[in-house]
Specification:
- The chain has strands at residues 19-25, 28-33, 38-42, 51-54, 60-66, 69-74, 79-83, 90-95, 115-122, 125-131, 135-140, 145-151.
- It is 0% helix and 46% strand.
- The strands form 3 sheets. The chain has a 4-stranded antiparallel β-sheet with strand order 1-2-3-4, with no helix packed on it.
- It has one domain (19-151): 7 Propeller (Methylamine Dehydrogenase, Chain H), CATH 2.130.10.10.
- The chain has 161 residues and is mainly β.
Length: 161
Amino acid sequence: MPREITIVKNQFKSSGPQPNELQVAEKGLWYIDQVDLKVYKLGWVTGEIPFEDQTDTEHSSGITLRGRHLWIASSCELKLAKPGLEAGETIGKYDSPGAEVTASREGIEGAQVTRLYRLEWIDRMLYVVASPLQIVHIIDLEIWKEAHQFRTPGFLNHGLA
């Protein structure tokens, strides 16, 4: 089997101090920063920033785009935030599916509830990775109800592709 060598090149530097999840869109690359809590849209080639906005999220770790709305996983407050793309305000915040103390931490002083990590749109549903529950929640946003869920391998699932 032939081997291929790929050279990785830095295209441009991110605007915020700690970028977290990326969302690829037709006209650019969106990301949420975990430290400055800003959402950025970057141009594909030069990294120019045609859009930047402060969010009222906490330790954001997931972002996805649907139509004219972003969705952000506000991990530390266990909410899904829906900021507008132009208004500069949060349109809504919704309770996290599956926000509970994991079985491995029950009864332990200071145990925290699970956190949200990644978000993705697939077939008109919002997929929400909840770690360390090892569950992906599939939410029907038309009625804000969990349509399905499935378990994932590994204790700290962080990704969704």
